[in-house]
Design brief:
Elements: H1 3-7, H2 11-14, E1 16-17, E2 24-28, H3 35-43, H4 45-51, E3 62-67, E4 70-76, H5 87-101, E5 104-110, H6 117-129, E6 133-138, H7 146-150, E7 160-162, H8 171-181, E8 198-203, H9 210-218, E9 223-225, E10 237-242, E11 245-249, H10 252-257, H11 266-278, E12 282-288, H12 295-307, E13 310-316, H13 323-336, E14 345-347, H14 359-370, E15 372-373, H15 376-389, E16 402-409, E17 414-419, H16 425-439, E18 447-452
Parallel strand pairs: 2-4, 2-5, 5-6, 6-7, 8-11, 8-12, 12-13, 13-14, 17-18
Antiparallel strand pairs: 1-15, 3-4, 9-10, 10-11, 16-17
The structure holds guanosine-5'-diphosphate (2 copies).
């Protein structure tokens, strides 16, 4: 079975939407203490089967796990072959890596052997990091072996949790200890009331048709909300029903009020754009399609991308376009808006109402991808294939590699690559492009950052 078969057509359905990022639990310990067995125990049968596929094991070091409804990512640092020479150095390297990337370190010791010098050295590194450590005293297969576990109090990192990874003995207690060491789950970002209407910012330079579009969308409806009580500013929102849902259009007062203001008030427009973006989840950037793209249009699009909001591009005044303008517009867009190629485009006329209804599905797609999370195992399979098919060019005798990747956040999707050296900007752009090809992300910026292991 090829990798492509495993991913399948239904990948997009499998991507989780709006999931909070899951904390990382790194498993550290000497070879043969039972790390892999323990990881399989934590994950259950399904993942363990995948482990048996030859050649897959080594690269697939990170997995999604769940215990009592709490999700986390398990990283088996034993899956690495660090460049360090010698066992002690290799384990130390593993431990350093673990504390760098993990929220919690699960340190596994073979209780039947007891604490070795290498274990002591690892404890030093772990302790200095200040990260919470859970100590697993493994291979305590029966009551008679409990005293082996007790002896590990001597490591000075708290209670040894006696477990048998092989037989599953007390692994629930161990997972409970891991859970209580995890950081409090961050409350999901709600941008206002939980489960309330999604927040849309309608932005664009003066005269592109924001106010006309707002009137068209709102029609007779004028549910006005002002939730900034006690301030003199006026970011008044409007609730507008579209496509069977209620949407919150933020800072509409600014759009409507502008008519009383100086048309050339660029400064005001920029401020308003920023404040609308701060309060929104998705931006609809309106562009006047009948004119050439202006510097200011491009700046607004860049501001949206930098703010990490989802983005839909709406080309307005379509009723004014002739064949020739359409032709040039396409070329202009390709040339000038290449940093937003991934944004859905809708060609509309606020005046005639043409295709205005297409805005809603575009906004929904953008928001959905904005909150999407790629399962860690998928991400790492993707990276191990990418790296072997397209390795980073060798520079000065060195060839940086992507060791492991995790999605550290959503809204927008943020990826962190743990690499063995600095990745060139060109290679990072290549990675971003491939991520988009593989996982979609239409309508959302994505962030790719590196953590470098020299
Ligand atoms: P790793 O190198 O730390 O990943 O260790 P493995 O998970 O590959 O385990 C090494 C050996 O220890 C294997 O033969 C396992 O079957 C065995 N093992 C793992 N956990 C236990 C346990 O709880 N009890 C016993 N008796 N053996 C275990
Ligand atoms: P805003 O400054 O972005 O709020 O833009 P307005 O909504 O005030 O529109 C500026 C001008 O463009 C007004 O004269 C509108 O009537 C006109 N306009 C807006 N949308 C359209 C459209 O789709 N087609 C045409 N032909 N004119 C439009």
């Amino acid at each position: 079975m090829t990798h492509a078969d495993m991913i399948g057509d239904d990948l997009r359905d499998d991507l989780e939407r709006d999931a909070a990022p899951s904390p990382v639990v790194a498993v550290v310990g000497r070879p043969n203490v039972g790390k892999s067995t323990l990881v399989n125990r934590i994950l259950g049968r399904r993942e363990a089967v995948v482990e048996d596929v030859p050649g897959v094991t080594r690269d697939r070091v990170a997995y999604d796990a769940e215990w009592r409804g709490r999700r986390f990512t398990v990283v088996d640092t034993g899956g690495w072959l660090p460049d360090a020479v010698g066992l002690a150095a290799a384990i130390a390297e593993q431990a350093r890596l673990a504390v760098e990337l993990a929220e919690v370190v699960l340190f596994v010791v073979d209780a039947t052997v007891g604490a070795t010098d290498v274990d002591e050295a690892v404890v030093e590194i772990l302790r200095r990091s200040g990260k919470p450590i859970v100590l697993a005293a493994n291979k305590v297969d029966d009551i008679g072996a409990e005293s082996d576990a007790t002896a590990l109090w001597s490591l000075g990192i708290g209670e040894p949790m006696a477990v048998s990874a092989l037989h599953g003995r007390a692994s629930g207690d161990l997972l409970d200890a891991v859970l209580s060491a995890l950081p409090e789950p961050a409350p999901p970002e709600t941008f206002g009331e939980a489960g309330g209407p999604r927040r849309v910012a309608l932005i664009g330079r003066p005269n592109v048709g924001k106010s006309s579009l707002l009137n068209k969308l709102a029609g007779e409806q004028r549910a006005v909300v002002d939730d900034v009580a006690g301030t003199t500013r006026d970011p008044v929102d409007e609730l507008i029903d579209l496509g069977g849902k209620t949407w919150r259009f933020v800072d509409t007062a600014g759009i409507r009020r502008r008519h009383r203001e100086n048309q050339g008030a660029d400064f005001y427009a920029t401020l308003r754009t920023q404040s609308a973006l701060d309060r929104s989840e998705v931006a609809v950037v309106l562009v006047d399609a009948s004119e050439s793209l202006a510097e200011q249009d491009l700046r607004i699009v860049s501001t949206v991308i930098e703010s990490g909001r989802a983005l839909v591009l709406a080309f307005n005044k379509w009723d004014l376009l002739d064949e020739e303008r359409r032709f040039y517009l396409d070329r202009e867009i390709d040339r000038q808006l290449h940093n937003a190629r991934w944004a859905p485009r809708v060609n509309i006329s606020a005046r005639t109402g043409r295709h205005v209804e297409k805005l809603v599905p575009a906004i929904e797609t953008a928001l959905e991808n904005w909150g999407s999370r790629v399962p860690t195992a998928r991400l790492n399979t993707f990276f191990s294939e990418l790296v072997s098919a397209h390795p980073h060019p060798v520079r000065g005798g060195k060839q940086p590699r992507v060791l492991f990747a995790t999605q550290a956040g959503v809204r927008p999707p943020k990826f962190v690559l743990f690499t063995s050296g600095f990745l060139e900007p060109g290679y990072r752009r290549f990675i971003e492009r491939r991520l988009r090809e593989e996982f979609g992300f239409e309508g959302t910026p994505i962030e790719v950052s590196m953590k470098i292991r020299e």
